[in-house]
Amino acid sequence: MTKRRFTNHELHTLRNDIPVDALIDKALCIPSRVAEGHFRFLCPLCQEFSTAVNPETNLARCFRCEENFNTIDLVMIIRELDFVESVRFLQDYHKSASVSRSKDYRVATTGSDTHDGSQMKCADRSEHSNNSMVHIGHILDRIVPSKCERTPSVYNRPAQQNMANCRILRLEQKVDRLSHQIENILKAIHIDNPSHQ
């Protein structure tokens, strides 16, 4: 019988103690926004924003491709790591997030600052929650791995850059398809109503 690499408790901790929305936003740098009061992110499989995060179960769900994601699943998909590497990545992230939270607590108890970076980031995002449109530049800025916070440099791999390039290519293809659809609609409108010029 082989010995397990990780205990059930360790895996449970990584799946449930790391908020999936924080992982999506900060560590994995998946494009995200707050729409209609709910956190939404770009699905890594179908590339749509038809997503939601359930804070009670700490699961993310895409309603278009009908996939559920836990923290380990997301790291495996986005970082293109195997299970063991994903668990190690999450262990490192969990330790750094815990250290960060304890530093924030020490700063808050001394009275010098009552806001930590994650609270400010959420406040900044909520300012734009009424705006459902996101500029393509902001999306591309979020995809670039150098913008990730608290990501150990050992995990910055060429595969991540290739993945970002693939995402950019997919976005460009979607923009091209939309422009062709708009052209076809305009042609159809012009043919149906030639008097309106």
TrEMBL record:
Residues covered by region (Disordered): 108-127
Pfam families named in the record: Zn_ribbon_DnaG
InterPro entries in UniProt: DNA_primase_Znf_CHC2 (IPR036977), Znf_CHC2 (IPR002694)
GO BP terms: DNA replication
A GO MF label: DNA-directed RNA polymerase activity
Biased composition (Basic and acidic residues): 113-127
Gene3D superfamilies: Zinc finger, CHC2-type domain
Recorded superkingdom: Bacteria
Domain annotation Zinc finger CHC2-type: ranges: 9-95
Name of the protein this chain belongs to: Zinc finger CHC2-type domain-containing protein
Source taxonomy: Bacteria, Pseudomonadati, Thermodesulfobacteriota, Desulfobacteria, Desulfobacterales
